[in-house]
Amino acid sequence: MWMRGGTSKGGFFLASDLPSDTASRNAWLARAMGSPDSAQADGMGGGHPLTSKVAIISTSARSDADLDYYFLQVVPETGQVADDQNCGNMLAGVLPFAIERGLLDAADGITEARVLQVNTGTVAALRVATPGGRLQYGAAMDPKSGIEVEIEFRGIAGSKCGELLPTGKPVEAIAGIDCTLIDNGMPCIIVAAAAFGVTGYEDPADLEANAGLRKRIENIRLEAGPRMGLGDVTEKPVPKIMLVAPAREGGALCVRSFIPHRAHRSVGVLAAVTVATAAILPDSVATRLARGGGGPRRRLGIEHPSGTMDCILSLDADGNVASAGLVRSARKLMDGIVFG
């Protein structure tokens, strides 16, 4: 089944329908997407990382989860199939897909599920409206259409790096530039856009065309990887580079994201959560530029090229982020047979 989840799109598969051998499975998925080919003309991929994604779903054997969700990123140009990260946008499609495939029964009203994100071992709570025990999708492909899915993340600090701040410090100097190395669901390097001589409000295509900028941020990414406990990240999709600037549309912060070599047309869900978390940490790069209120429950709008993603952070008594929630949408696009 092909679904849009948030601002991403990809194939949703039952684990039982794919080869059990990892190499065979990955080779089949690359062929199905049409990789290696930047246009992915001979497959289902859309020629961009955001439209070349895979979600593999099964019922969970764990007592604290109902479903297992394994995310794979198929790189259009190379055909590499990577599992180094979660994808919060594709996560929005997991519960609707599970209902479609009969893994869960839809309740009359609201259907809930606990979803194990296999890539990191963290669990997210998902809720979707199912009046009369049925899913009701929107008719348009606008990211605001489709069926709304409430997502709540807990226990995601250090999802890949082991700690919220892998180096233990809110700021690290890399190549003479202040960086916040942080992981609250997505390993990110947060840098002020102005440090690279850009505003942070540019169109993604303009940023992507700036070869000098891309080289500088990749050099920082390669040095940050070992510091974050990720090792050599040359061929890895994490950490992401997040260029931040003051908000202009009433939000808390504006961001331009590299994922890691292409400029994101919006922003990833878990990347937005991680940036929002950085925006309330004392002395971080993001805090210097962000605006926002106080209290144990904070709503931070993360502005991006396609709009604003609202992240709701709940803080514990010590001021640490206990949970992060947001609403995304999903829509079923195609149900059929894919030939790999």
Structure, described:
The chain is about 15% helix and about 35% strand. The protein is an alpha+beta fold. It has an 8-stranded mixed barrel. The model has no long low-confidence stretch (mean pLDDT about 95).
- Which spans of ≥5 residues are poorly predicted at pLDDT below 50? none
Rounded to the nearest angstrom, the radius of gyration is 19 Å
Largest sheet: 8 strands, mixed, barrel
Envelope shape: globular
Distance between the termini: 14 Å
**Hey, roughly how much beta strand do the residues contain?**
25-35%
Estimated structural class: alpha+beta
Overall pLDDT, averaged? 95
The beta-strand count equals 16
Work out the helix count. 6
Q: Into which percent range does the helicity of residues fall? A: 10-25%
The oligomerization state is: single chain
**H-E order:** EEHEEEHHEEEEEEHHEEHEEE
Strand order of the largest sheet: 1-2-3-4-6-7-8-16
